Amino acid sequence: MTLLANPAAGGRRSAEIAGRTARRLLAHGVEVDVVAGRDAAETRQRVRECVAAGAGVLAVAGGDGMVHLALQEVAGTSTALAVLPTGSGNDFARVLGIPAKNPDAAADILLGGVRRRIDLGRCATPQGADRPLWFGTVLTSGFDSLVVERTERMRRPRGRMRYAAAVMVELGRLRPLPFTVEADGHTEEFEAALVAVGNTSCYGGGMRVCPHADPADGRLAVTVVSPGTAGRLLRAFPSIYRGTHTTHPLVRTFHAESVRVHTPDMRAYADGEPAGPLPLRAEAVPSAVEVLVPEGAATARG
């Protein structure tokens, strides 16, 4: 097993959890290689080398950003991905059923978990068609993209509250955007506040924006929020954490195997990481990655 540590995720806590987990695995007779990079490029190179060397399991100690980095290398390979959630959002771990607040229980999944194959999303812009990007959670555009950018500029508060604070700020600047969306060959043009494309259900620290997503059905789940007043969206905001917003009159959901999204002068984000400028095409890739989940979990569904 290879344990990928990210000291930047969760501060000192991440390094401590990685070290404790390594000792726990060694005590149970598991051969462990601990690797880390000084930056994203070096870290990805280390992951690539581990996968090429035939690592059976890559365990990532970090948040959704580290998981996203690892997915670029383990997708489509025989290396299984495990997650020790130490980040602020931990949405990929959440849909796998991995506890973020109990490091020892998360480590036990490395010892006694079961392997499941799940879908991933794969996206590319016209400028980067030869360099597709894998994503495990949600691809965001429109209002969501603006919130992610705002969140990255903020230093306080921490965790999911920082995302919520960014939402409040951007609601005051809300404007309708002209979207063109092509889903499985059918094209629509409409105004919307956001279009979210989910392989799994949640992002932003537990916001279940695509509660109809199932990473084992070979489809992407799309949520469209029509433009409305800031007040109406503010009142609907808490329901996103529960996943009950889909009954709101401003919200429309559907599934598609392939989706192309465009609105002018907008960037998209996948797993909270930059995916490039729109237009962007995303597709579901069935059984693209093997993951470790708690024993008894039939599927990894958010």
From TrEMBL:
Lineage top rank: taxon: Bacteria
Keywords on record: ATP-binding, Kinase, Lipid biosynthesis, Lipid metabolism, Magnesium, Metal-binding, Nucleotide-binding, Phospholipid biosynthesis, Phospholipid metabolism, Transferase
Residue ranges annotated for the DAGKc domain, each copy included: 1-127
Pfam families: DAGK_cat, YegS_C
GO cellular-component term (any): plasma membrane
Gene Ontology annotations of biological process type: phospholipid biosynthetic process
Cofactors: Mg(2+)
GO MF annotations in UniProt: ATP binding; ATP-dependent diacylglycerol kinase activity; metal ion binding
UniProt-listed InterPro entries: ATP-NAD_kinase_N (IPR017438), Diacylglycerol/lipid_kinase (IPR005218), Diacylglycerol_kinase_cat_dom (IPR001206), Lipid_Phosphate_FormReg (IPR050187), NAD/diacylglycerol_kinase_sf (IPR016064), YegS/DAGK_C (IPR045540)
Protein family: Belongs to the diacylglycerol/lipid kinase family.
NCBIfam families xrefs: PRK11914.1, YegS/Rv2252/BmrU family lipid kinase
Protein name: DAGKc domain-containing protein
Organism name: Streptomonospora alba
